[in-house]
Design goal:
alpha/beta, 49% helix
Length: 252
């Protein structure tokens, strides 16, 4: 590790497992103090114990993406516990893939939008005041399914494209404060993806055939380094962009 995040403080939502935890591992090993959030205390506690076992400075707080008070509490804890906030990763997302458009209920649509779009919006609003003085990096998450419009992803696609639109506008408005905002669209073998592959093997097989490199990425080793690039000074002149970290699934 090269210490590219030495002295930095990062919040990662949905950091107890999957992509969020993979990013937390990479950030911690590069010197960042990391606060992870999520809904399940046992997962968060185990993840933080793992990070601390590797010599990291890490903490956790229970929080539901889409609840403003929880977003504000996470930011407050990061600032009070670690002394500031430099990086925000909005990874948390609840979804139920495989529900066709005509079968999508208001409840499912609201659940998906709340956790993804509202959660991202609320955490950004809570974080920005603490980044204005010296800049910062916000990393949000889109999806191939949002750009492509995959079957059974109506609520999820709408959420992820909403996040991309929000990110571009915020990047334009907040650039004067040296706050950079970018989006990753990953193809990763997260717990949600693993379940989707099991539940919809034929659709998963079609998706796999579209990935040029032939595999779903590892949360830490494939997605983590891309997030590190966007979090570090290596990307100091990059903002408002969508980066597809998907093995060549989507080529723009």
């Amino acid at each position: 590790m090269t210490g590219r995040l030495n002295g930095k403080v990062a919040i990662i939502t949905g950091g107890g497992q999957g992509v969020g935890f993979g990013i937390a591992q990479v950030f911690a090993r590069e010197g960042a103090s990391v606060l992870i959030t999520g809904r399940t205390p046992d997962k968060l506690e185990a993840a933080v114990a793992d990070l601390i076992g590797d010599g990291a400075k890490a903490a956790w707080i229970v929080g539901t993406a889409g609840v403003r008070a929880d977003a504000e509490a996470a930011v407050t804890k990061a600032v009070e516990h670690f002394g500031g906030l430099d990086i925000l990763v909005n990874n948390a997302q609840t979804s139920r893939p495989g529900t066709m458009f005509e079968d999508t209920s208001d409840e499912l649509f609201q659940l998906t939008i709340n956790s993804g779009l509202y959660g991202t919006f609320q955490h950004m609003q809570a974080a920005v005041p603490h980044m204005k003085a010296k800049g910062g990096s916000i990393i949000n998450f889109g999806s191939y399914e949002g750009i492509h419009g995959g079957l059974g992803f109506a609520a999820y696609a709408a959420t992820k494209e909403g996040i991309r639109g929000l990110s571009r506008t915020a990047a334009r408005e907040l650039g004067k404060y040296k706050i950079r905002i970018n989006v990753i669209c990953p193809a990763a073998l997260s717990p949600i993806a693993e379940q989707w592959v099991k539940d919809f093997p034929e659709e998963a097989d079609k998706v796999m055939k579209l990935i040029s490199l032939g595999y779903l990425g590892d949360c830490r080793d494939d997605i983590g380094p891309a997030a590190l690039f966007l979090a570090s000074e290596d990307s100091r002149y990059v903002t408002g962009q969508t980066i597809n970290v998907d093995g060549g699934q989507m080529m723009l």
